[in-house]
Amino acid sequence: MTHALQIHGLEAGYSGQPVLRALDLEVTAGVTAILGPSGCGKTTLLRAVAGFVTPMAGTITVAGREVVSGRSVVAARRRGLGYVPQDGALFPHLTVEANVGFGLPRGQRRNSARVSEALALVELPAKLAQRYPHELSGGQQQRVALARALAPRPRLVLLDEPFSSLDASLREETGRAVVRALRAAGAAAVLVTHDQGEALSLADQVAVMVDGSFLQVAAPADVYLTPADPRVAAFLGHAALVAGTAAGEPDADGRVRSASCALGLLRLRAPVAAGPVRVAIRAEQVQVAPADESDRAGVVLDVSFYGHDATIRVVLDSGEHVSARTPANSVPRPGDPVRVDVVGEAVAFAV
Ligand SMILES: Nc1ncnc2c1ncn2[C@@H]1O[C@H](COP(=O)(O)OP(=O)(O)OP(=O)(O)O)[C@@H](O)[C@H]1O
């Protein structure tokens, strides 16, 4: 099967200033989330694929057809892909049915069978077809926007932060419904988001972008558990990075599986070269307990109470900070001396 999307050596930006640098990406099927901090270039990438930004270099191929190659650029409306913007951008004066029909080529806009099919894909009841956008909830509006994008049966749909205006519970439910609809339609999707939970829970592949480059493109569990770069670890799951030294019995490649740092001797998930490292430690791996002067590792800086649990920030005696996630019934107070234990393996990066 041809790729839904292939990007090679893409450079794009504004007024001659590059934002995206030498990007490569392949999407075969399923959902690929582009995840990264604000301003890193996620929307610029989506716009370049959609045809709203003309790249300075590189190629973009959609469903086997080159849409950008050197100076040759296919117009946005001829790229055969669906686009769902942040706020859905439905036409307020058109009914749901007419909005969805608008996604079809000019002569087929009144093809009610295809419109009904698209509404069924996004699990919207047929009785909503005659309503206007202002008579729908935010989640329903986003589903109509997706139905409009899916109506002409594209191989690829681009979703630009489509759930950001929805509240937390609706966001999760709408996200799952959107992924079900994409799978049912057999369309691949590129989802731009800065919400890690959304990217990890909805996507089959996560591309982590920082400063216009991908630091890692891999399955959600891989980017989370085996980050390829300390910036991926720090961004995903807000891992603390602590200075350490990797040492121990070397393997056949001369690499070692443990590191000592302010939190003691830690076992590493993957071997690294012996020597100075930065160790990434996630809040869910850290346990704090009351301590006296003999076994303290630091003091509690502050506590964020969430009801189901609490996040405790600790200043280690080394001056470094780590966070711990703790059951809500055993929360220490700021200033309390604590012992800090790390559960499971850590990830280390050579420096
Ligand atoms: N039309 C424009 N003209 C000039 N610069 C722009 C334009 N649009 C975006 N930029 C700049 O390009 C960079 C990347 O912006 P982009 O919108 O792609 O980031 P993003 O990752 O989508 O951010 P966010 O998550 O905040 O939406 C930013 O520095 C931004 O200021």
UniProtKB/TrEMBL annotation:
Gene3D superfamilies: P-loop containing nucleotide triphosphate hydrolases (3.40.50.300). GO terms for molecular function: ATP binding. The keyword Lyase does not apply. Residues 5-236 form the ABC transporter domain. Pfam families: ABC_tran, TOBE_2. This is ABC transporter ATP-binding protein. Keywords: ATP-binding, Cell membrane, Ion transport, Iron, Iron transport, Membrane, Nucleotide-binding, Transport. It comes from Nocardioides vastitatis. PROSITE patterns: ABC_TRANSPORTER_1, ABC_TRANSPORTER_2.
